Amino acid sequence: MKLFQVDIKKFRGFPKLKIDDFKDLNLIVGKNNCGKTSILEAIFLTIGISNPNLAISIDRLRGLFHDDREDFQFIFHNLSYSSNIEIDTKFINETQYRRLIIKPTFNKVKDIDIKSNILASNTTSTDKNIDGIEFDFSIKSAKQSKDKFRKATIQFTPDGVKVQQPNDYNESIIGIFLQPTTSVIDLYKRLDKILVKKAEDRFIRALQNIDNNIIGISLGAKNMIYFDIGIERLVPIQIMGDGTIKLLSYLATIANAEDGIVLIDEIENGFHFSILKSVWESIYDTAKLYNVQVFATTHSFECAKAFNGINPNKRKQEDSTRLYRIERENNLFRAIKYDPEVLESSFESNWEIR
After folding, report:
1. Cut 0.85: pTM above it
2. Which of 78, 158, 253, 297 is the 20 to 30 Å CA partner of 107?
3. Quick one: CA torsion of 353, 262, 251, 276, rounded to 10 degrees?
């Protein structure tokens, strides 16, 4: 099942934005503060549509930590609870429509100071206080005409964060969001599954485009990852270059998300421009092998140009890539779509596509 369309309203900086005609490999470009990362986050939320804890997770990936119930405002447009978030998506192959409405939940009773057992407020106001958020979601096929909504909630309580999810729903789509910094622990777990299946050879060949000394990968104790570069001892991954670590992380993640979706923010980080074409080709081939749909962002001209250089004949024949430029003007957003032919013409004419 592949994502074809997303329609976003009142999420982060977007009053509204609609993007359609997604393909297997999608690159989102645009100037700073145009909402590239927010698009990935909106897709991530709809993939895990029954999990309200993702609202905290996407903030954590930005370095925003929820210490208070008011911190939920980070995901709402203009940091205001006055409008609900709405994310509508269409998936194809097995046609499916998803609708997610995110709204604040309020406690009509004043917060109680647990230690002193008295009202924390010394006013007579009956203002409502936010105590969490609610995910109202529906999933329907092309044959269904009406939405059947389920509910999931996350709340701050005196005992900590409480998450409630419907018992009659299990998510069918695998989704993984990769941030610019690489977690070695996550990479270790993903590599372990690959090595057990003896499927590491294709990853080693891809890494050799960055460092042709690499001839093997192995795992050690305490989440250590080692490379064999042909010397007497194995080399810890931490002393290899950023590009090697990044590419391995991307490919291992794709391999662990078979038939799912992988989201990669700032995909160019850690790579010299001269190897970006090899990076894209490795991602393209691996995503095809594992039937994974990839969404990535960049603000690098060289990265977008390398994306355009992926196996051009095969890519055009399959119509399997799209580039989208996000434009913002007077707080209005739109996505400009580039298919392979238009993108190639744009580069040949030196048009600005970032």
Report:
1. yes
2. 78
3. 10
With CA atoms as reference, report the closest residue to 326 among 288, 281, 295: 295
CATH superfamily of 175-348: P-loop containing nucleotide triphosphate hydrolases (3.40.50.300)
Q: Which token pair is 128? A: 């409502």
Tell me the pairing of strands 129-141 and 150-157.
antiparallel
Find the DSSP H helices in the chain.
Answer: 36-47, 54-61, 184-196, 201-207, 242-255, 276-290, 301-308, 312-318, 340-348
**Which tens digits make up the pLDDT trace of 333-344?**
999 999 888 888
| Long-range contacts of 52-59, Cβ-Cβ distance < 8 Å, separation of 24 or more | 52/102, 52/132, 52/133, 52/134, 52/135, 52/152, 52/153, 52/154, 52/163, 52/165, 53/154, 53/161, 53/163, 55/102, 55/133, 55/154, 56/154, 56/161, 57/177, 58/177
Q: pLDDT digits over 137-172, tens only? A: 999 998 887 889 999 999 888 888 899 999 999 998
- Map residue 162 onto helix, strand or coil: strand
Identify whether the C-beta of residue 41 lies closer than 8 Å to the C-beta of residue 55.
Answer: no
Residue range(s) occupied by CATH 3.40.50.300 in the chain: 175-348
Structure tokens at 328: 């913002």
229, 230, 236, 238: CA torsion to nearest 10: -30
Q: In terms of Cα–Cα distance, which of 202, 205, 189, 57 is closest to 133?
A: 57
User: In DSSP terms, which residues pair with 256 in a beta bridge?
Assistant: none
Q: What is the DSSP letter of 204?
A: H
